Amino acid sequence: MDLFKMTNSVLVIIFFSTLYELVASQAPLPINKIEWPHEPNPIVVKEDSPIRTNLAKLSVTGGKHPRLNSSSEYVSLILTSENLTYATYDVNLIKALDYETMGSTVFVPCTERNDDYSKIPFTLRVYITDVNDETPVFLNRPYSINVAENAMVGHVVYDLIKANDADFSDRQLKYYFEVDPKITDTDYKSKFVINESTAQVTLNETLDYETARFYQYTVVVRDSNKHNATTDVFITIEDVQDEPPYFTGTPYLISVQENSKVGTSLLVVKAEDGDRGLSNSVTYKILNGKWTLPCSLINNDLEDPSSGRIYG
């Protein structure tokens, strides 16, 4: 007898537990109830909701045989049940939404009809919530920078890189530099850095025009949902007069016959400006020379001192 009661008790507990789960899983969607002259509560929907999504249920009461009509390209009203005093409709999405082009609200004009009076107009409001679905876009491209080779380390050399994200909910963009994988020079990669928040480009190491005259980096902008956009920034290094001239073809050796006439051309030396971009002309002068024969860079003041020709 005791065992029978225990068994029945267990069966009852299992039965009610199962029944509760079924009811909970079939809970209806929230109902926007229309009670004239009040308008229904607004419907809130994400912009990426798929077509045929059931947005809400509308229950209309008032008069005999109430009915609803609507004219909207985005939602439709589907009658699901009715009787003498009320009718229920499914509000379904029939066209894709886009917060960035449509804004935050869709107004659905509706009309309620019944057997007691002809028409009662009202507006159903559908509020669209933004979803992070847009890719950032760079503005004012291309990005090109000229930087003097004597620019100070830590100096901001460019601050015009800018990207925009159409998603209202995402304004936290981050910027990065990427370098062509074929470039293995670590100095090249680290010469310039970009601030991940402001996109300001800063000189990170000293420059030398004679060593490297051009840098190219890929700028990556990323939003919080990992949508990426890329563009290039081109950096040209400008030469500054900071290098001394240098002789080419050294060392110079002169062999002179003892009976050579005064003014005989003995040798032509050659020097070039160490600055390649802004090269200046080079002039020559003999300083502190020890000679067994008098020599000069100028023959009777007729020779240009920039020729590099030495006379005996």
From TrEMBL:
> Which GO biological-process labels does this protein carry?
homophilic cell adhesion via plasma membrane adhesion molecules
Any idea which UniProt keywords this protein has? Calcium, Glycoprotein, Membrane, Signal, Transmembrane, Transmembrane helix
Q: Does the keyword Protein transport apply?
A: no
Single GO cellular component annotation? plasma membrane
Annotated Gene Ontology MF terms?
calcium ion binding
From which residue to which does the signal peptide run? 1-25
Q: Where in the cell is it found?
A: Membrane
Q: How does it sit in the membrane?
A: Single-pass membrane protein
Q: Where is the Cadherin domain?
A: 139-247, 248-289
Q: Which residues cross the membrane?
A: none
Keyword check for tRNA-binding, yes or no: no
Q: Which InterPro entries match?
A: Cadherin-like_dom, Cadherin-like_sf, Protocadherin/Cadherin-CA
Q: What CDD domains does the database record attribute to this sequence?
A: Cadherin_repeat (cd11304)
Highest taxon, organism lineage: Eukaryota
List the PANTHER family hit by this protein, alphabetically: CADHERIN-3, CADHERIN-87A
Q: What's this protein's name?
A: Cadherin domain-containing protein
Q: Which species is this UniProt entry from? A: Biomphalaria glabrata (Bloodfluke planorb)
The record lists the lineage as: Eukaryota, Metazoa, Spiralia, Lophotrochozoa, Mollusca
Q: Name the encoding gene, please.
A: 106063894
